[in-house]
User: Which sequence fits this backbone?
């Protein structure tokens, strides 16, 4: 069982610190009335709230800066609102959440569809709308109607909401049939579609948006059924105080626009990479990267970077082509200039081992040369930007940032200033002058996204291997339950 305990006095969202400070002034425990039941009173007395959730990109996962995810942020803020710590059990599949809530714990937060027919639980007010989406394997004739699904092997997750939609649709479309998987998550379901074990699947739109870059062989089909509502689930029979307080908290987030901002932050952006470019990246990751993986790992051990970050940078530079050459004479897998290669002792820029080792050391040198006032990921992103545009131009952008009233130690502020190096009114006042300042912004953005994809694949590779080992030759008999046509 995966259980995590978080002291909510230490915030994971530095970028939202100022907003949170203002927001929480009106949400501290003293704002709400005295507990109306023993459940809420017990939570306040023990000083923590226990939540059942799932380890998925749309709910809760551990990112580079620690715990993150849309529902994690909501429950973390709710714990702050109550003035208590947060304890998570993220060991569940979605079908297990409601039973866990009935049995123990304080609430379930796991992209749960609001289903009034469920006994033994009470749902909160709706949080966001969930639109089900039909997706299908690339290469099939695009299905456009429910009738087009006849003859296709269709799958969905048991208890996630797609099964509810399909059962409703089956009333008017009795020939509709599908398979339900109780012990998979969305990524695994999409993997079954891409591998050919399934022809199509029903997932939520926001889930596909977050996962589509990782499964370029799965296409967007059409919305299916009426939208559902996502909600939190609470144990019935223990009073309404906690439910009512959660509803007040969620309503405040909605009324102040903070809920929409969180939705936009977590689900509103799938355009970091052009979709065809993402397909090319994943294809290259499968075909080219394995040849250089150990070289990246060794360079990472020497420079204390994550090997996947170095690999992402290498892809941005050359698409992992050791013979790459630019019109300006930059060459090799890590695209080193001749002077930089000389300073690093790289004798053959076209040798992959020398190029990767030299590029990693160059990134380390850039990061070490930055002012000590730049910390954390801001320091890494600025070092990556300097790899692209040069340290001098980065310093110029930091100076412009300061003149504009921003924080030169924050990447979010500096990236707004870098494109201004293309404007005469700004670059004429700098030491190093004009630069293609928009390029390092895109450069860092792309590397971050490539890194996310590699991290996702690396983290889930063992899980997929275990799944494939359990399902030889595409046999899904022990994973999916067949829901036949309504006879």
Assistant:
């Amino acid at each position: 069982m995966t259980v995590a305990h978080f002291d909510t006095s230490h915030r994971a969202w530095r970028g939202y610190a100022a907003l949170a400070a203002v927001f929480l002034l009106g949400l501290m425990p003293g704002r709400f009335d005295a507990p109306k039941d023993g459940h809420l009173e017990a939570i306040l007395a023990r000083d923590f709230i226990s939540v059942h959730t799932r380890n998925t990109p749309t709910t809760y996962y551990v990112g580079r800066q620690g715990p993150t995810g849309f529902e994690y942020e909501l429950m973390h803020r709710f714990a702050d609102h109550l003035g208590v710590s947060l304890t998570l059990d993220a060991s569940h599949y979605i079908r297990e959440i409601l039973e866990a809530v009935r049995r123990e714990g304080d609430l379930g937060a796991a992209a749960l569809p609001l289903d009034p027919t469920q006994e033994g639980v009470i749902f909160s007010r709706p949080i966001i709308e969930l639109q089900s989406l039909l997706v299908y394997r690339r290469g099939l004739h695009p299905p456009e109607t429910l009738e087009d699904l006849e003859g296709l092997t269709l799958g969905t997750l048991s208890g996630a909401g797609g099964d509810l939609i399909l059962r409703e649709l089956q009333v008017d479309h009795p020939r509709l049939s599908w398979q339900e998987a109780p012990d998979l998550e969305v990524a695994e379901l999409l993997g079954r579609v891409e591998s050919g074990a399934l022809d199509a699947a029903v997932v939520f739109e926001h889930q596909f948006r977050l996962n589509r870059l990782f499964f370029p062989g799965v296409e967007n089909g059409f919305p299916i059924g009426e939208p559902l509502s996502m909600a939190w689930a609470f144990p019935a029979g223990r009073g309404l105080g906690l439910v009512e307080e959660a509803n007040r908290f969620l309503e405040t987030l909605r009324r102040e626009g903070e809920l929409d901002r969180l939705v936009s932050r977590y689900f509103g952006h799938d355009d970091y990479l052009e979709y065809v470019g993402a397909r090319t990246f994943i294809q290259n990751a499968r075909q080219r990267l394995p040849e250089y993986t150990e070289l990246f790992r060794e360079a990472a051990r020497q420079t204390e970077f994550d090997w996947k970050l170095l690999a992402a940078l290498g892809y941005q530079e050359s698409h992992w082509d050791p013979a790459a050459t630019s019109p300006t004479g930059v060459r090799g897998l890590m695209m080193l200039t001749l002077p930089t290669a000389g300073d690093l002792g790289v004798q053959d820029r076209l040798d992959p081992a020398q190029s990767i080792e030299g590029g990693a050391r160059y990134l380390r040198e850039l990061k070490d040369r930055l002012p000590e006032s730049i910390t954390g990921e801001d320091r890494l992103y600025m070092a990556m930007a300097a790899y692209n545009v040069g340290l001098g131009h980065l310093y110029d952008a930091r100076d412009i940032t300061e003149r504009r009233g921003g924080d030169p130690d924050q990447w979010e502020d500096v990236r707004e200033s870098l494109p201004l190096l293309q404007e005469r009114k700004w670059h004429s006042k700098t030491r190093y002058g004009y630069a293609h300042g928009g390029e390092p912004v895109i450069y860092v953005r792309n590397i971050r996204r490539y890194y996310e994809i590699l991290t996702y694949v690396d983290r889930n590779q063992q899980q997929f291997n275990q799944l494939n080992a359990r399902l030889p030759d595409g046999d899904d008999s022990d994973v999916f339950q067949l829901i036949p046509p309504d006879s």
In short: The chain has three domains: 3-112+237-267, 129-228+473-483, 277-443. The chain has 19 helices and 15 strands. The first strand starts at residue 3 and ends at 6.
